[in-house]
Amino acid sequence: MSQRPTIRELRKISEREKRKLEEFGLKYVDEILIFTRALLIDQVGLYPESADKVLNEAVELTEEQGEAMTLRELEEKEKERKYLKTGSENLDKILQGGYLTRTVTELAGEYGSGKTQTCYTAIATALLPPEEGGLNTGDISVILMDTEDSFTSKRMTPIFQRFDINPEEALERVIVMRPRTSHEQLRKILTSLPTIREKNTRLFIIDSITKLLRIDFEGRSELYERQRMLLQTIETLRRIAKLYNMVALITNQVVAVPEETFNRKQVPAGGNILGHTVDTRLYIKRLPGDIRLVEILDSSWLPPGKTKIKITDSGITDP
């Protein structure tokens, strides 16, 4: 990528509007394209006409990033993407290497299925050097958005020790966010850009993506607004992950769907919004003891697959 144009290089908006963008945390023009028109108006405070101008100019100034390319050129570009080991060789195998940067991977499952422990294992593996399956090429950070309000450093200590990572040093690199509402959740994602740049964030986790939405929007009368907010949230995270070559992991709750046979089938919450936006969807099912069955429900690039993992105090591993 050539030198990135900054907000200062915008010419079609006023100095006041440039300051609004910078005060919100934006530094580079390509970061503007993370935002929709509505988000520039509602979150940043631009007037509708200014939002249109700045989006159009951002496209013009970053045109080379979105230009057409041959399939060979696309393959070369995709080599920039990296894999993050999961902690389980079985899971790495069906993911063809692990969690992929520039994509969003969803971990869905019922309470106690091991979604959070799977995420915590990824925090540790992200801090490993690339030759050991991690993303740490120097001083990196991890962002954990803890909507469940359940994260504790004590839970991470045995996982760090398993991978020979100094817990005291590692905890300095884990940035925890605890939004109180779904609106604050979206805003914290949007305003995380300075942290991502300055702290070299390589993994962004949201545990869980739908909890606050299900609390804030109740009943069928608010279903449209809930789904709109969910789409804005997940697409914003996806655009950030693509721009900064990060791994994005989200956990998701499940809902029961009655069937004609009176059996109850559980499916991930969020409906088609997540199905059409998330890149890879994994479902974790409880089996006897500490064993879990992980199934690829859908993926934009992976074939269907299933495997077994084991949940332990030191993270996920193979049975």
Question: Which key terms come to mind for this protein?
Answer:
Rossmann fold; 13 helices; alpha/beta; DNA polymerase, domain 1; 2 domains; 319 residues; globular; nine-stranded mixed beta sheet
Describe this structure in words.
The mean pLDDT is 92. By secondary structure, the chain is α/β, with parallel strands linked by helices. The protein has helices at 15-24, 37-44, 48-61, 71-78, 89-94, 115-126, 153-162, 167-171, 182-190, 193-199, 211-216, 223-243, 271-277, and strands at residues 83-84, 99-100, 103-108, 141-146, 174-177, 201-207, 247-252, 254-258, 264-268, 280-286, 291-299, 306-312, 315-317. The chain has a nine-stranded mixed beta sheet with strand order 5-4-6-7-3-10-11-12-13. The protein has two domains: 7-66, DNA polymerase, domain 1 (Orthogonal Bundle), CATH 1.10.150; 78-317, Rossmann fold, CATH 3.40.50.
Radius of gyration: 20 Å
Mean pLDDT: 92
Distance from N terminus to C terminus (CA atoms, Å) equals 43 Å
Largest sheet, order of strands side by side?
Answer: 5-4-6-7-3-10-11-12-13
| CATH level 1 class label of the largest domain | Alpha Beta
Shape: globular
What's the CATH H-level superfamily name of the largest domain?
Answer: P-loop containing nucleotide triphosphate hydrolases
Task: Give the SSE map.
Layout (H helix, E strand, L loop, with lengths): L14 H10 L12 H8 L3 H14 L9 H8 L4 E2 L4 H6 L4 E2 L2 E6 L6 H12 L14 E6 L6 H10 L4 H5 L2 E4 L4 H9 L2 H7 L1 E7 L3 H6 L6 H21 L3 E6 L1 E5 L5 E5 L2 H7 L2 E7 L4 E9 L6 E7 L2 E3 L2
Parallel strand pairs: 3-7, 3-10, 4-5, 4-6, 6-7
Antiparallel strand pairs: 1-2, 8-9, 10-11, 11-12, 12-13
Helix pairs in contact: 2-3, 9-12, 12-13
